[in-house]
UniProtKB/TrEMBL annotation:
Protein name: Ice nucleation protein
PROSITE patterns assigned: ICE_NUCLEATION
Chain positions covered by the region annotation Disordered: 1-101
InterPro entries reported in the protein's UniProt record: Ice_nucleatn
Listed GO CC annotations: cell outer membrane
Signal sequence segment: none
């Protein structure tokens, strides 16, 4: 399933769900769920979940969960859980949990 706004570039893998606002660049790999606001750049790895606000840059590895506010830069590695507020920069290592304001 792929839903995207105007001026966006999207790639949705097998059995994945991708929803993105305008002017964004998103890649949802196999079995992943990616939701992102406008002007954002995101990559959701296999079987991962990525939810991000506008103007953010996000990368979620396989089997990970990443939720981030606008204007943030986040990387959630394989098997990790990352939740972050706006304007933040964070990296969650493999099989870890990171919650940041």
């Amino acid at each position: 399933s792929l839903i995207a706004g105007y001026g966006s570039t999207q790639t949705s893998g097998e059995d994945s769900s991708l929803t993105a606002g305008y002017g964004s660049t998103q890649t949802a790999q196999e079995g992943s769920n990616l939701t992102a606001g406008y002007g954002s750049t995101g990559t959701a790895g296999s079987d991962s979940s990525l939810i991000a606000g506008y103007g953010s840059t996000q990368t979620s590895g396989g089997d990970s969960s990443l939720t981030a506010g606008y204007g943030s830069t986040q990387t959630a590695q394989e098997g990790s859980n990352l939740t972050a507020g706006y304007g933040s920069t964070g990296t969650a290592g493999s099989d870890s949990s990171l919650i940041a304001g």
